[in-house]
Structures are given as C-alpha cells and as structure tokens.
Amino acid sequence: MSKGKILVTGGAGYIGSHTVVELVEAGFEPIIIDNFSNSKESALEGIKAILHKSIICHTIDCTDAAALRKVFEQEQDIQGVIHFAAYKAVGESVEEPLKYYHNNVGSLVTLLQVMAEFKVFNLVFSSSCTVYGIPEKLPVTEQTPVQKANSPYGNTKKICEEILTDLASSGNSNIKSIALRYFNPIGAHPSAKIGELPLGVPNNLVPFITQTAAGIREQITVFGNDYDTPDGTCIRDYVHVVDLAKAHVVAVERLLQNKAESIEFYNVGTGTGNTVLEAIHAFEHATGQKLNYKIGPRRAGDVPKIYADVTKATEVLGFKTTSTLEEAMQSAWDWQLSLQDNTAKV
Ligand code: NAD
Question: Rounded to two decimals, what is the model's pTM?
Fold first, then answer.
C-alpha cells in the first residue's frame, strides 16, 4: 500500500526526477507537475526505466492557478507537495529579473493558495545555500544570518523563505513547510538513466566538466585561483543528487508524521568543502579522463567558500550522505556517456 500521494512540482527536472525515484523506493506515490521549460520528457522515460512503471505527469505551469486546481481536483488525497519548480540560472536572473520573480515567487504563492483551498498542508521547499551570501564563519549552520542576495535568483529563494515564514507566523494557516537549503548538487542516478540535463551552456561546474571530457566543449575555465583557500580556487560542498533526493523523503516523512514545526530550515550538504581543483581532480581520478582546464580571472558574484554544518539535518531528519565526491563524479560521467549513446542512436 502506498504511503500517500506526493505532488512533485518540477519533477521532470534534475533534482525532482531523482526525488521521484526515491519517493517510489520509499513507498510513496509521486505525481509530477512540470511545464518542461528546463527539462525534457525523456526524463519521464528515464524514471520509468528505473522504476519499471510510469509516473503520472501533468504538463502545466505552476503559476497557473486554474490548471493547478484541476490537478488537485483530479488527484484526490494529495498528502504533501515538494516544490522544485523554479528557474535557476543566476546570470539570466540578473538580465531578466522579472522572469525570475514571476516564476519563482509567483509559483510558490499560487501553489500555497491552491494547497490551502484543497486542505493540503505539507510542503517541502527547494531553497539554497545562496541565502547565506558570503558567510563570515564556516561551516554555515541554519543560524548563520541570511544576507542580502547577490542576484535576483538568490533573492527569489530568500523571498520565498520569508513568505513561508510569514505564513507560519500569521496564525491563519495550517500549512507546514520544510525549506531545504541545498549546497551543490552533483552526480546522477547510478543507473545513468536520469541526470542533469543542461539546455545550452551549463551553468554548473560538473556538467561543464563532463561535457569538456566528452569533447563537446574544448576547455573548462576555473574562475580564479587567488582566493584564500588551500589551492586558491573556490570551495563548495558537493552533495550527490541521490543523497539530496533522499533528504526530501525524510522531510516529507517528518511532515506527514506531524513532527514538524510550522516552518523549519535544514542545510543539505555533506559537511565537507572541496575546492574546484579538488573536484576536477576527483573527476579525473574516478574516471581516468584527463580534463583540459585553464585558470581564468575571478567571476563576479562567486562566493569564495561555503560548506554546510549538517548537524541539524543529521540529528532531526536522520539525514546522512553516503556517496563520495569520486562516486558522484563517476555517476555524472556515466550519465554523460549515456546521453551521447542516446544521441548517437537518434
Ligand atoms: P531544473 O531546472 O532541472 O528543474 C526545475 C524543473 O521545474 C524543470 O523541469 C522545469 O521545467 C520546471 N519548471 C520551472 N518552472 C516551472 C513552472 N512555472 N511550472 C512547472 N514547472 C516548472 O532545476 P534543479 O536543479 O532540479 O532545481 C530544482 C530546484 O532546486 C529549483 O527550485 C532550484 O532553484 C533549486 N536549487 C537547485 C540547485 C542546483 O544547483 N541545481 C541548488 C540550490 C537550489
């Protein structure tokens, strides 16, 4: 018997698709909503190949209240929602801020209104360590002050967290939310049937690495090696996407067991920081591929170093990462190779 229906907005995306798989493995019945603005229907095929069954997907936009209502009407007994749907390209958000405020903030507000109408009171929200800005002390805990965002994208995450906090303190809402602040998700499902699918030039390090190793891009540029870190390159907390996906399952379970406060925040990372060069070398070591990279100037807006204190997620949610950086890199490479195989077949 299913543990309950969980609506997963953005469920065809990178983190969403992995979470859908983990929800099923944990006994839940996920229902996907996606408008495929940053994903492809092939993700649904990948999910199906892993699970040996199809997952229902409603192709709608989360800012469309009428369409959302229809989904809630059609899908009776939704127990909770995991809200991934958002745009996430930092650079684009600087150029087109309204697009980001409309989609990221608009979809959350619309979703919360429709959830309340249908008496669905449990929400897991995709937040980001970007809310900590350039932290004064490392590692960052959930008490580390949230800072002024350095991009419209980052600001949408900050605003969405504030909306959830305001709703919680209004006293008028039964909605309980868990905001997971992701550090740097990388890697792919070990089956290599789902993974990160950057449309166009990747914004994140690992797809850039795998595309360079695959010969799709000539060279990868490391932005700056004069930071105050052991090798001068930026430090990030790279968390395997499957570990991250599992954090959503334990968060949903906490909500459904009625253990959560009206709003809770958790860091989701490994607790370890690695430099960009360490990440590159981990990729080379894991896969045996030599990477053509060069050192370039610093990139505006990059946080020099950030990694998580994950004590709260470990103690309260029972969250624990199990994958190493090398395993994550290997899985990302396997995914890249499978993408090329599929392209070759077309
Ligand atoms: P993604 O782009 O792969 O997935 C997002 C999915 O949402 C896509 O499938 C897209 O088509 C869909 N979508 C976007 N707007 C929509 C809308 N209005 N209605 C319906 N569907 C919509 O991104 P991801 O990496 O899986 O990120 C998921 C969430 O996690 C996002 O909220 C993102 O901001 C957040 N996050 C991501 C990272 C990261 O590095 N990947 C880090 C921190 C936080």
Answer: 0.98
